[in-house]
Amino acid sequence: xxxxxxxxxxxxxxxxxxxxxxxxxxxxxxxxxxxxxxxxxxxxxxxxxxxxxxxxxxxxxxxxxxxxxxxxxxxxxxxxxxxxxxxxxxxxxxxxxxxxxxxxxxxxxxxxxxxxxxxxxxxxxxxxxxxxxxxxxxxxxxxxxxxxxxx
Length: 151
Description:
Elements: E1 4-7, H1 13-24, H2 31-40, E2 44-50, E3 53-63, E4 66-74, H3 83-97, E5 102-108, H4 112-120, E6 124-129, E7 139-145
Parallel strand pairs: 4-5
Antiparallel strand pairs: 1-2, 2-3, 3-4, 5-7, 6-7
């Protein structure tokens, strides 16, 4: 079975929770509650599901004409297979359908792989947030006009 990107369902809870923990760490609210709240609030939550279950997840929120990506996580065994690109593209399509014209996100300054992925998809660095993360690391701000071709 070829993996398919689709909206997340409450029944994806346990598998998505594991990926959310991977993306956000152990601190904070319970990952299954994050998924339930996101779905109930109408946030954009996409999963990439295959024969082995959920391989990747992406979460974000549309506000007016902007879309903020809150997090992307790909299972370790499924990395470097284009799944991150698939999730980001699906999130953007859902956000555009909801009226968003721009997408933005924060990414750890040390996360070169994620920054490279976003650049390939047309995101550009627009600034930094010093000491944004709890451990003191900076965040790199990136933005992308939805519907534009990647650079």
